């Protein structure tokens, strides 16, 4: 009877050790899976951030190009207005110079 009890204790001890070893393996596997999942999420977040950054840069470049065209067109319009104004004043300036020259010649 004593040997049966010892044998039963030994078997229980072996089962306990096997259960602990299985639990340790399961723990290691769970940690490894969690680490892998975290790394995958980090990679996905980095990819998403890079795509967002690229999109924002493209949007900013497009907005800058539109603004550049607006400024350029406004500058061309102002230059045309100045040229028109100068052209209309040119005749008056020539007449004024000619009349001043005539006055000096008559002096």
How does this model look, in words?
The chain is mostly helical and 107 residues long. The protein has one helix at 2-106. The mean pLDDT is 91. It is built from one helix and no strands.
What can be said about this structure in brief?
By secondary structure, the protein is mostly helical. It has one helix at residues 2-106.
Poorly predicted sequence stretches spanning 5 or more consecutive residues: none
* Computed CA radius of gyration, to the nearest angstrom: 45 Å
**Helix-residue proportion:** over 70%
Distance between the termini: 153 Å
Count of helix runs: 1
Question: What are the main properties of this structure?
Answer:
rod-shaped, 0% strand, mainly alpha, 107 residues
Topology of this structure?
Layout (H helix, E strand, L loop, with lengths): L1 H105 L1
